[in-house]
Amino acid sequence: MKFRDLANVTLDRLGRMGLAARLGLQVGAKLTHGYQPNPFVSPPQPDPRDCQGRFDAAMTILGDMECPSVLDVGCNQGYFTFRFARKGGICLGMDNDRGELMVARARAELHKVRNAAFLELAIDPGNLAGLPRSDIVVCLSIFHHWVRHFGRETACGMLSLLATRADKAMIFDSGQPEEKATRWASELEFMQPDGATWIAQYLRCLGFERIHAAGLFSTSLSPVPRTLFVACRV
Ligand SMILES: C[S@@+](CC[C@H](N)C(=O)[O-])C[C@H]1O[C@@H](n2cnc3c(N)ncnc32)[C@H](O)[C@@H]1O
Question: 97 in ligand 1 pocket by Cβ < 6 Å?
Fold first, then answer.
């Protein structure tokens, strides 16, 4: 082996050891929000937002897709990005929280996941149209954040734009007005008389042919479970 190759292999190994130590420290000291479990360990650890249940329920509707490309908006530590990446397609997760992305990126590197990448990006009305199109868009538990930050009209416009990036399906859930224990429930009053019906109708308005309610999933934020939707083009 040439000196240059040997030096790069050594530096790579050292970098990985540092990354593993950083990840262990970050997770061990609970420096992240702990929304999502580690998809690389079995059986999975505590899963307060039932990521595993939501993924399995969505796959029941989507069936066995071959190498789907995926855009995971508000990916957090990349649970859904990694689960889809196992199917072989190019998967892109994005989030504005650097701490959560440090975990996602370290896991991608340490587990040698070559078809998943993570962007540190604060999604806003100005950059959504520039996102690449993909087979599946994952838009989970982020819409109510947009309503809080940008207001109802802009948030709905953002969701419409995001839908244009989904060639086959969008997996969607959101905070709902029924989650009274949360600080943002009152800002979702426009979904009344009930959140699930409003979401299903809105997804239909965005041009999806079939809207499936894939199940109810607990959130740990309130006793009210959230409906998971899979909106399909055909
Ligand atoms: C409640 S967590 C949901 C995580 C994941 N989608 C799930 O359902 O398990 C919301 C995530 O969206 C991210 N987020 C919120 N607003 C965002 C924005 N404007 N751009 C990018 N990420 C955002 C947060 O950092 C957080 O990781």
Answer: yes
Centre of ligand 1 to C-alpha 90, Å, is 20
> Do 24 and 59 lie in a common domain?
no
Other C-beta atoms within 10 Å of 98: how many? 9
Convert the pLDDT of each residue in 27-50 to its tens digit. Answer: 999 999 989 999 999 876 889 999
Residues 9 and 98 occupy one common structural domain: no
Question: How many alpha carbons lie under 13 Å from residue 48 in its C-beta half-sphere?
Answer: 9
Interval between CA 234 and ligand 1 midpoint (Å): 28
CATH code at 65?
3.40.50.150
Confidence of residue 192 (pLDDT cuts 50, 70, 90): very high
Q: Whose CA is nearest to atom 1 of ligand 1?
A: 141
CB 209 within 8 A of CB 52: no
Burial class (CB in 10 A: 0-12, 13-18, 19+), 148: middle
